[in-house]
Design goal:
This is RNA polymerase sporulation-specific sigma factor. The chain is mainly α and about 190 residues long. The chain has helices spanning about 5-20, 30-45, 55-75, 80-90, 90-100, 125-140, 145-155, 160-165, 170-190, and strands at about 110, 115-120. The relative contact order is 0.10.
Amino acid sequence: MEYDDLYQAGCMGLIKACDGFDPSLGYKFSTYAVPVILGEIKRLFRDGGAVKVSRSLKEVSLKVARQRELMTHQRGEEPTIAELSQALGIEEEKIVEAIGIYNPTVSLTAGDETGQTIDIPVPCCEEKITDSLSLREVVGRLEPVERQIVVLRYFQEKTQADVGKALSMTQVQVSRREKKILSRLREMLAE
């Protein structure tokens, strides 16, 4: 697997995370983004191949690169995404996506004065943290009432009776709904 493909999958995951993030849920962006990015990288391994870039996105990328170069040459500074969007009549999200497909990768090593490389430490994610982030990501994909049940039961550790009172449901209704939700969560986590 090429490093560039992994980087590309990570970038695609980041874009998906930006599109799907809902700040009203009260979670940090990173809590949502990490499992989405990891999911894209896992999907790349599962599908066993390079990241595919559509022809239309390649064409947009070429237009963006030309316009970017022209504007930089004319003004002596890099244009903003908004300026590129306005100049080309293309949505800002598409501009960002187009720029991302051919951006050079960032090395996790840096050279010192002697020319030797120094590894830049990347903090290791604990499996427990990754599992927690993955769970929060799939919980974020549930319907609002289902999400409330999960948050109240497992993040705020409320009883089924307390959840029922908060959501105007009986304890039995909460129990049945919770079983269905947990089954769906298991399926989503297995994806």
